[in-house]
Amino acid sequence: METGLTYLAIAYGGFFALLAGYVFRIARRNDELQASVEALEVRAAASTRDGS
Amino acid sequence: MISLPAALASLSMLIAIGAVFLYAPADTPPQMGSTWPYVQRIFYFHVSAALSAGISYVLVFVGSVQYLRTRADRWDRFAGISAELGVLFSAFVLFSGPIWARPIWGVFWRWEPRLTTMLITFTIYVAYLMVRSYGEPGERTQRFAAVVGVIAFVNVPLVHYSINMWAADQQQHPVQVELDPAMQQTKLICYFAFACLYFLLFRLRLQQERQAARLQVLQ
């Protein structure tokens, strides 16, 4: 493989790897938030049942 | 369903990659050697990322000043997200620059003004994010982060003007670059693609931070 092509592949590969890492981090945070919402809903449902 | 910003960012990024690899000319100046036709294509994303990072740091400054003025949480979130994106794009600049430099300069790194000031700026904003992450959640940390966000900005014009501020014999970056029209168009396409990507990532993070703030109130 041409050396220049290797450098080019590393640079653009690095960009998309960085971007994928950041998007993965966003997705993981989304999952955490979703889990918190579900936990809140369960708690709210339980307190409604106890109240009735 | 895919949102409009996501569709626009994906499409513009695909067009940018097509322009970089298929449209931009690869003329080789005689002194540049055989790797030039390949490695010169690194610069389209490198420069676009540097511009995005610079804009992010301006936004951190704006968000920090506004937070100190108003003490509104939304400005703190605005500054924090901008800093995150600034560090992300700066990381790519500091990664792709040496990848380009190795075949062209013969070394991965030189302590020349622009590289050094960029590295210092990157380190300062990483420290800013660490202040935000490790500080106690609350007004005190937000205020401290805002002060760091204002002080950190002092370094940003230094990166931009480093080419003119230091002696020419210490410089590796060119002061002025004349670009072929097709190269100029490719550069503008890449700027647009990065603007769309920036808007998408900023929007996603802002929605997430708003949701997290609402959840905190409910809990």
Short description:
The complex is a heterodimer of chains A (52) and B (219). Chain A has one helix and no strands.
Question: How does this model look, in words?
Answer:
The complex is a heterodimer of chains A (52) and B (219). Chain A has 52 residues and is an all-alpha fold. Chain A has one domain. In chain A, 94% of the residues lie in helices and 0% in strands. Chain A contains 1 helix and no strands. Chain A is rod-shaped. Chain B has 219 residues and is mostly helical. Chain B has one domain. Chain B is built from 8 helices and no strands. In chain B, helix 3 packs antiparallel against helix 4. Chain B is globular. The chains are: A mainly alpha (52), B mainly alpha (219). At the A-B interface, helix 1 of A face helix 2, helix 3, helix 4 and helix 8 of B.
Radius of gyration of chain B, Cα only, in angstroms?
Answer: 19 Å
Helical percentage of chain B? over 70%
Tell me, what's the shape of chain A? rod-shaped
Anisotropy-based shape of chain B: globular
| Largest sheet entry of chain A | none
Structural class of chain A: mainly alpha
How many domains would you count in the coordinates of chain B? 1
Number of domains of chain A: 1
Structure characteristics:
heterodimer, B: 219 residues, globular
SSE order and pairing:
The complex is a heterodimer of chains A (52) and B (219).
Chain A: H1 3-51
Chain B: H1 4-23, H2 36-39, H3 42-70, H4 73-105, H5 113-134, H6 139-152, H7 155-165, H8 181-218
Helix pairs in contact in B: 1-8, 3-4, 3-6, 3-8, 4-5, 4-8, 5-6, 5-7
